[in-house]
Structures are given as structure tokens and as C-alpha cells.
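Thread amino acids onto this structure.
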């Protein structure tokens, strides 16, 4: 997934966060999108 997926619904956000943390731990959950 790419950063553009941050505009997806909440469920997609969850998947985005899991995928991001798995591949890029430097990108934490940002409450700005939550």
C-alpha cells in the first residue's frame, strides 16, 4: 500500500497502519487521519 491509502475508510486505515508498521516502522499511527 502507499501513503495515498490514508484517504480510505477506517477499515482501510487499520490495514494501512498494519502494513506500514510491518514494512516501515518509522511511520506511526497519525491521529490526524484517524
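Threaded sequence (34 positions):
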Amino acid at each position: 500500500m502507499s501513503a495515498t491509502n490514508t484517504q480510505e475508510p477506517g477499515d482501510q486505515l487499520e490495514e494501512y497502519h498494519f502494513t506500514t508498521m510491518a514494512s516501515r516502522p518509522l511511520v506511526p499511527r497519525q491521529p490526524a487521519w484517524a
